[in-house]
Queue: 2 jobs
Job 1
Amino acid sequence: MLNIAIIGGGAIGLLTACLLEKDHHVTLYIRDKQQYKVIEKEGIICLPVKKRYPISVQMISRISANHELIIIAVKAYHLQVLVKQLKQLNVPLLFIQNGMSHLSVIKEALAEHITFIATVEHGARKEGLNGVTHTGIGNVNVAPYGLNAKQKPLIIQRLATHSFPIKVMQDGERLLKEKVMINAVINPITAVYQVRNGAILTDPRLHEEAKNLAAEVARVLALNFNEQWQRIVNIASRTSRNDSSMKVDIDQGRCTEVDGILGYLINLASSPIPKIIDYYQAIKEMERGDQ
Amino acid sequence: MLNIAIIGGGAIGLLTACLLEKDHHVTLYIRDKQQYKVIEKEGIICLPVKKRYPISVQMISRISANHELIIIAVKAYHLQVLVKQLKQLNVPLLFIQNGMSHLSVIKEALAEHITFIATVEHGARKEGLNGVTHTGIGNVNVAPYGLNAKQKPLIIQRLATHSFPIKVMQDGERLLKEKVMINAVINPITAVYQVRNGAILTDPRLHEEAKNLAAEVARVLALNFNEQWQRIVNIASRTSRNDSSMKVDIDQGRCTEVDGILGYLINLASSPIPKIIDYYQAIKEMERGDQ
């Protein structure tokens, strides 16, 4: 049993708090005063089973070093402010953010901390201020990152339980890169051509498009193309009847995460990437409803 | 009379081609084959007066050094590919892009070229493939940028005509910074609070909010706060009954340019910027229709 802090009252923060509460002592830290009051009074409601979890909750300003692990589940752009607080605490840190932009923040500001990176395959949707629907059960992948990357992640093994299984990986940066790889190929193609994930395997033209796009993405991320293409084929096959999150966002007239995925790659690239740019522009036009 | 190339078939590219065509020899270069065919056949239609401009048009792959000036009016993320072609041409370049991300591209890849930066205050909306509505007449501000910044911009003075008045400025980087300054303060506040530009002056609470946000933005951009606040007050007063572009985007359920404005500042900042982050998150939530 660990004494754990979780920072962030979004879908992943709430879900993680519920999943860990059974076997650990969890304190949830949040920014929003209204959300704080509701969770203090009613706890977190986990749907669809409608189970109620009474969780210790605190305002984020009160975070202390009185924990064995701090899980940071805020959006990447909030780290910039949060890092100042975390810097002063000598506690291992586990980061759950989309994309890769948080790596530079960790590398620069928290170089002397014990830091881990996680990707979460659980599906979660926030409902109101204190509800979360667990829409899909998946792995939590955790890898050490930074100067401590060669240490054995004992604390992570202590974190893992039956209700919170963890896959321990070697290389945090690679873990994130491989997630960006999938998101940068399957998401834009399914969104632009309005198809389910499996079409990348069954439609010869989209198969070719996906391969060309994957080749550019692998080059930008300095990953091996054949290995990554095999991973994309596996995932598209396993999720062939699913709609990608970017396709759903476009279908529902919402903004997508294209800036954090393809936009990130455009900034990173040092050689020409015409396919990435074409898909970036196509998604931007679909988002804005341009002709 | 100059022999000018304009690259880009968006609203600004089409409008600039029409405005310059009267006094210069203009060739418009575009990427899209379908648009190329329509413009070659029908020219550009400038609305609301519905005047037809027959313009020389070419596919962008055919761009040559046979011009005295190349005006680049493509989106910032397209520069990455285009720059490879421009690098080989020994022709002065004039860049019209939103935001500031193109500065690093110019600085790194085109250091030996004569380069200029422009901001366009004209309003323009693209209609179909070859139409453009001139929605507002404004200045075109041009400043030298890069190693040639101390040269006298004679070519720019030759570019200016009665139908294309130009304000020549000293410092390209400052020109863009001051535009980002305005966009980073007036746009988010009017979009979040659903008010017209003038409310920043008349509503005491929004006045205070705008001031605090402006202080952070000025700090990130290393601009003088008092000077910039005076500019914001002047512009909000001059446009007091207008809706900002970000407010209009939110009202119409479209994605905004918040990533290129506040997102850019978040990446740039090296000290805490809680207001910028709050407004970034608020706009992101409004875009995605989160609770």
Note: The radius of gyration of chain B is 20 Å.
Job 2
Amino acid sequence: MRKRLLVSAIALGSTLGLVGTALADDGLADYRDRFEPLPHLPSIPADNSLTKEKVRLGNMLFFEPRISASGVISCATCHNPALGWSDRIPRATGHDGQIGKRNTPTVLNAGFLESQFWDGREPDLESQALGPIQADVEMAMDLEGALSRLEGFELYQRRFAEAFPGDPAPISADHLAEALASFQRTLNTPDSPFDRYLRGDLEALSEQQKAGMVAFVDSGCIACHRGANLSDSQFHRIQVPGSTDVGRFDVTGEESDRHRFRTPTLRNVAVTYPYMNNGATETLEEAVAIMGQEMLGRDFEQATIDDITAFLHSLTGEMPDIEVPALP
Amino acid sequence: MRKRLLVSAIALGSTLGLVGTALADDGLADYRDRFEPLPHLPSIPADNSLTKEKVRLGNMLFFEPRISASGVISCATCHNPALGWSDRIPRATGHDGQIGKRNTPTVLNAGFLESQFWDGREPDLESQALGPIQADVEMAMDLEGALSRLEGFELYQRRFAEAFPGDPAPISADHLAEALASFQRTLNTPDSPFDRYLRGDLEALSEQQKAGMVAFVDSGCIACHRGANLSDSQFHRIQVPGSTDVGRFDVTGEESDRHRFRTPTLRNVAVTYPYMNNGATETLEEAVAIMGQEMLGRDFEQATIDDITAFLHSLTGEMPDIEVPALP
């Protein structure tokens, strides 16, 4: 199967006159053209310019456990830099050990998504940021309480004033969200092997990974997993094994949204296991097989699963080089 | 009060012929001689040599939440690098949000202590390391389960084999403890202003900090808070406000140990609030006043409290420059 695909791809390249036109062209230009390398930054909203002061403050706030009711849970607890900025457990575990109903999405490259959360209930990182702080099963903190704790630290008074100059009361819910969103917009993973491949380093992928890319396109995975972040940010109906989650129906109440979820990114998917909205799928191979069955209505052959899995491994980029901040 | 102490100290220096013998001598050599600068490393036990392989593995294990029952609590949760390697809440909060009975001690410079935990129930970092993993109110994990989770990762199999070469089954409770202890022995904070002062940079302390050092010696604080880590590692009877904790009595059952606690380090005390075994004391000024009353039987004047507090701020050293590891 793998061989046939590669041969046909090379034949296609020949037909198009591509073989021989560039040094060591692998004949897969038509496939590469279906993808986009990840930019180093997502687009920045006009009303929240990305400044180093906001990023520094957002970095502090991201690691700040005292904006949780217990005082020990921060954004970094579930979006753990040691664990692909996620938690590697099936479902998020938060305040008092409560277990949420969904798998924690990584924050890596989240700025490239056009809606946030599995059900897309918030449009951007600013509106997303305050949700987990207040959610009963996550940080379980009332917003006023969180702001008042921050007010208690002289260093935060200074850092908020630096990040939002000219505001007489810079510590506010909006600014908390804006600083967190700014920091998160810097958490990107460009320069994965696949990005290097798309930019012309044709040896950055192994032959198996290239076969996987071809299968990914030819099988139709790319219909939803497309664009720089390999997500169309759209909602698709899916019920993975063991899930009764109604997904976006909870947000809109529209029957047509029942069991719809926003397409997750595939960037860094190899280091953000387990998979699916319920986190019940442990390995990438299983995830590929399930997606083939549920979304594409086909049983992938094992060789195809292996190829696509190899390709997905090429989507692991350079992790952001952040410092653990010294909190007040 | 501050002036009087400084004047008398300078007079003492004159008497001893110290003034004028060294460039810009501040006349406090006799006081400096009572202290020791912090070495860059504590002594290393003969049966657990400090190797970079063990430190690297220990660094991973320290940040590893999957050796907790919930999968989200690691050593770094309560010994948080962002918070002076402690948690800055009164009492440790662990598994399922349970609140322990004591304040979390910092792990910074813990290798310099001759007994571990508030009640000194373990003699060294190796024997300490496995306690919090198994404690019901902390990580709540059975040791076999923790080891079996680690066994499940190929990277840990490799890293344990590298750290403990020649052992056919390198993933063991002893090695888990040895790696964690090795990492913790690197978490030291030399080169605080006070260390620079003791090494001859007489301008590293302000005049108020020097007055605080003098008061610290003259008032007797140094009787227990002595040595490189400003702890004698001995047990002293104390019942701070609000505490009914019997301390070391729980360990030995000896009536003479009732309410005895091991002297905590004062290194980095300014960044490891709140204070006392029950964490009920929020500020350093309060802590100084309480220690004066409880341990020295005296009511410090406010100026003395301010001086000693200023001195204690000079004990904040350079935080260890560690990386958040990439876990498997």
Note: The first strand of chain B starts at residue 235 and ends at 237.
